[in-house]
Amino acid sequence: MSEVWQAFKKRENGVRVTCLLCDKSYSNPGSNTTNLWNHLKGKHKSNDLNEDNDLITTPSFSNSDSLNSFSHFSQQSSSSSTSANIVQETSCIKQIKMSQFIINKATKIKMDNALAYFIATSMMPYSLVEKKGFQTFVRALNPSYKLPSRKTSNLSSACLGCIELSEDHTGDNIADILHMLLLDYEIPEWKICSMTTDHGSNMIKAVNNMNISHVDCFGHVLNIAVSRILKMEEVMTVIEKVKGIHNIFAHSWKSVREIGIIQVKFGLPPVPQKPGVQSVRRTRASRLAYIWGAPLVPA
């Protein structure tokens, strides 16, 4: 329905209309509203219309009927004016220039650094740049930006210091040493995304004292997990049985010869057997090698 009917009311079965602002009557048997708009622009432009020809809510009235009829119109007009202002403000938003999507060398470096910061602080893998979903998201943001390949992301490491800690290796003492090291290199703590240490309680406390995100060393956590698994009663039972079987073939050449005959009979590849059982001290590396099936080196 046209907004012009907020200022006009149909009378005489819709054949005539009356202006609610000045009580002027017009013939309007159809649905054409051009003459009604012309009336508003010509008669009420200065007093009852704003700069955009929208109706405002401060008209004068000639009789009580018009006042009562316009009370409802004023509420609708106020809502319409608010909507018009919102549309007007939205239309004033500047259009994005195409130059903002053009990537020069400086912009490329800036965006690459932002991507590296996102990957580092969010602990994302470098393979993220190869994910189709992430590539689609970046193209939607800026089609001109070309993601760096995973191979161009060079990782590097450097030793900042090797400091002897003669005092007790408490979390507070370790944190003090780390603070001094950062001060020597003038590295602010806000530039450090995280610190990786073993799972020792003193190391965790030292990093927490510095208000820096802590990341456990995966190798140390895995070693702890494997150590605890090997100490489980169910696993220890199996290990003892395996050791007993191994000792049979390690100390008896006759048993080695017999199992070799059986392997050939069933078409199995011969497994070389070494006599003698060597005592191996399970270090962190040897324990992991034991789990992954790598050969063990006696300590």
UniProtKB/TrEMBL annotation:
Pfam families xrefs: zf-BED (PF02892)
SMART domains according to UniProt: ZnF_BED
Stated name of the protein: Zinc finger BED domain-containing protein 1-like
GO molecular function, one term: DNA binding
InterPro entries assigned: RNaseH-like_sf, Znf_BED, ZnF_BED_domain_contain, Znf_C2H2_sf
Domain BED-type positions: 1-51
One GO CC annotation: nucleus
Keywords: Metal-binding, Nucleus, Transcription, Transcription regulation, Zinc, Zinc-finger
Keyword set includes Zinc: yes
GO biological process, alphabetically ordered: post-embryonic development
Protein localization: Nucleus
